[in-house]
Amino acid sequence: MDEELGNGNLGPYADRPRTFPNMRSKVYTPLIFRILLGINVRVLLVLLFLGFGAVFYMGARTSPIIVFVFSVCIISFLFSIYLTKWVLSKDEGPPEMVQISDAIRDGAEGFFRTQYGTISKMAFLLALVILFIYLFRSTTPQQESSGIGRSTTAYITVAAFLLGAVCSGIAGYVGMWVSVRANVRVSSAARRSAREALQIAVRAGGFSALIVVGMAVIGIAILYSTFYVWLGVDGAPGSVKVTDLPLLLVGYGFGASFVALFAQLGGGIYTKAADVGADLVGKVEQGIPEDDPRNPAVIADLVGDNVGDCAARGADLFESIAAEIISAMILGGTMAQRCKIEDPSGFILFPLVVHSFDLVISSVGILSIRGTRDSGLKSPIEDPMSILQKGYSITIVLAVLTFGLSTRWLLYTERAPSAWFNFALCGLVGIITAYLFVWITKYYTDYKHEPVRTLALSSVTGHGTNIIAGVSLGLESTALPVLVISISIVSAFWLGRTSGLVDEAGNATGGLFGTAVATMGMLSTAAYVLTMDMFGPIADNAGGIVEMSQQPESVREITDLLDAVGNTTKATTKGFAIGSAALASFLLFSAYMDEVAAFSQEPFKQVDIAIPEVFVGGLLGSMLIFLFSAWACAAVGRTAQEVVKEVRRQFIERPGIMDYTEKPDYGRCVAIVASASLREMIKPGALAIVSPIAVGFLFRILGYYTGHPLLGAKVVAAMLMFATVSGILMALFLNTAGGAWDNAKKYIETGALGGKGSDCHKAAITGDTVGDPFKDTAGPSLHVLIKMLATITLVMAPIFL
């Protein structure tokens, strides 16, 4: 491949129409798709019909609510296929655009194949460890009375873990699959109008978002109904209770988190190492534009947008939704059991219905963004952000209506007739929280607002002042989101607590479930928010293709505008993700304490940090966040250094690159970042998985010898609590500072403060390169880390006792 790229017989380099090396040695199709394509169409239809029949049969045996969830998910999958057909029907533009797109697609698919091969091996190894632990662990009295032995629990947890890992991998692949096909179509559409390019990018992102959310929902629904039918829930006396089922799903959330963490780390290291290397040598040293075809690292940079932003973010949001659904199901079941509600299935299945409605309302939001008949470039360009915001506003209004309907349908109980209204208000709190998070992040990262413009102005006095201003902006940006989260947690807790639901002793029990409902409210527009996120890297890639194929400046202006908006939407999604991670982790923490109490048969309602060992556990949790972030950023730095050396070498050894008489060796940079990112993702990922298990096990042994049997569990609880708090603040800082640095550079590139090539622009590029690993490697990985710590402690709780 390297020889093709470096020495391919492509004619004079400066000639137009431009042609680029086709990096594809052979078309890659995943094994499962190759098998499906090899099956006769009629046989495939029969198998699909039987599969759907089995799913609906299990759903009917379980609950009509599950049938509703299955139906909505399948309809949304059909709608996403329509979106795909619509996007793929658009033209790909001239041959030079298609060749660049093929090079990006080949690099992305090749890296994805290698990366997920590595992740799958690690997942199988961890599955064996979980199986071993569960086969030798103790069981709760409830499990013994219902006949679920050690081996059954072990195989159920491992199966759920592997299914979660597979679904998370598919979610990532879907995100990348559509982005590498939509980018060239957006580039082509930008030659006609900004509105058409925007519509294609949004619909391509919408396809990915609907598949990710739909798979998270249908995966959990299938697991739940399978366990319900297989274990004979609520059948004979002594059988498994329906309220115990959600705890069996925890493995699914852990599997999703495991894959998402490594996908985010590997993809983030890949994309930012290539980006930093390309910018430092190309823009700063050589003074060539972004995505210039003369830059040897440009293809690696464009590949990185797909594997880092699309594939990794799809896996990230998938595990966010999976963790939130499972934690809310656990809390709903626990509360229904305490309040002796006759039919608890509504409280348990409520999260699945909320996300089913999410698929419907987000589809309406996606369809609300239409193209215009006037495709002339001379017509005034509308602000893409305001168009996306209109779609989001429509989605928000529909979310409020469907959420109220869902609470009345599923959360109405004769024991507390007005409780459903309180929970509807909890959902409203969550929806408002999501909207505020999107607005706050937009304020700090969009160059229409003062913070980014002030940051850009600091570049006038040099590189150092740009860095100082960016760090201070990031630190300041943590304040408003934390206040919003704090108010939402407290208000949702008290709305739930005053709902009228009480246990046998007359104590109010709805508080935690109120917080769970607020989390569901926050994520009730997740599919549309993910659509806005996927729009970003597609627009970024489209701009790269336009620049590399040397399209007119008017076309590049359109893709630059879409790219700047894409930076803001990516930043808002990260803000949204960290907010939901904070709420979901709070729920999973409560579920962990309940599970410890069930295993130990002792009350475990609070953690006393005045106990030295518990305080140390908290310190270790905070340290874990800082060490993990350091290793993630250092990995980008080391890999970027290799890219910088390679790009400099090529400019020195091939001086003809600058005047188009020699071709850069793109494949060399692709190979460097691919191998380095796979090598570098292991250390921080292993730290995240091993730390809580090692700490819990060591303090369990210490507790055994000092006569404190719950010491291990208490220390892990403190570790989880402090890591969550530190992780939220660190992720907010990293995400916002990185996004602001990027858009300060974009603002200067619009012609402000001297424009491209000025000293001010070079200082802004330095800030952008510092912010790259912040916002696209360490920051997003922390979202996953926070939730994975919560799910891993839930799964591994038995070894801490």
TrEMBL record:
<feature type="transmembrane region" description="Helical">
    <location>
        <begin position="575"/>
        <end position="593"/>
    </location>
</feature>
<feature type="transmembrane region" description="Helical">
    <location>
        <begin position="119"/>
        <end position="136"/>
    </location>
</feature>
<feature type="transmembrane region" description="Helical">
    <location>
        <begin position="65"/>
        <end position="83"/>
    </location>
</feature>
<feature type="transmembrane region" description="Helical">
    <location>
        <begin position="200"/>
        <end position="225"/>
    </location>
</feature>
<dbReference type="GO" id="GO:0004427">
    <property type="term" value="F:inorganic diphosphate phosphatase activity"/>
</dbReference>
<dbReference type="GO" id="GO:0016020">
    <property type="term" value="C:membrane"/>
</dbReference>
<keyword id="KW-0813">Transport</keyword>
<feature type="transmembrane region" description="Helical">
    <location>
        <begin position="685"/>
        <end position="703"/>
    </location>
</feature>
<dbReference type="GO" id="GO:0009678">
    <property type="term" value="F:diphosphate hydrolysis-driven proton transmembrane transporter activity"/>
</dbReference>
<protein>
    <recommendedName>
        <fullName>H(+)-exporting diphosphatase</fullName>
        <ecNumber>7.1.3.1</ecNumber>
    </recommendedName>
</protein>
<feature type="transmembrane region" description="Helical">
    <location>
        <begin position="31"/>
        <end position="59"/>
    </location>
</feature>
<dbReference type="GO" id="GO:0012505">
    <property type="term" value="C:endomembrane system"/>
</dbReference>
<feature type="transmembrane region" description="Helical">
    <location>
        <begin position="391"/>
        <end position="412"/>
    </location>
</feature>
<dbReference type="InterPro" id="IPR004131">
    <property type="entry name" value="PPase-energised_H-pump"/>
</dbReference>
<feature type="transmembrane region" description="Helical">
    <location>
        <begin position="614"/>
        <end position="637"/>
    </location>
</feature>
<feature type="transmembrane region" description="Helical">
    <location>
        <begin position="347"/>
        <end position="371"/>
    </location>
</feature>
<keyword id="KW-1278">Translocase</keyword>
<keyword id="KW-0812">Transmembrane</keyword>
<keyword id="KW-0406">Ion transport</keyword>
<keyword id="KW-1133">Transmembrane helix</keyword>
<feature type="transmembrane region" description="Helical">
    <location>
        <begin position="715"/>
        <end position="734"/>
    </location>
</feature>
<feature type="transmembrane region" description="Helical">
    <location>
        <begin position="245"/>
        <end position="263"/>
    </location>
</feature>
<dbReference type="Pfam" id="PF03030">
    <property type="entry name" value="H_PPase"/>
</dbReference>
<feature type="transmembrane region" description="Helical">
    <location>
        <begin position="508"/>
        <end position="530"/>
    </location>
</feature>
<feature type="transmembrane region" description="Helical">
    <location>
        <begin position="156"/>
        <end position="180"/>
    </location>
</feature>
<feature type="transmembrane region" description="Helical">
    <location>
        <begin position="419"/>
        <end position="440"/>
    </location>
</feature>
<keyword id="KW-0460">Magnesium</keyword>
<feature type="transmembrane region" description="Helical">
    <location>
        <begin position="478"/>
        <end position="496"/>
    </location>
</feature>
<keyword id="KW-0472">Membrane</keyword>
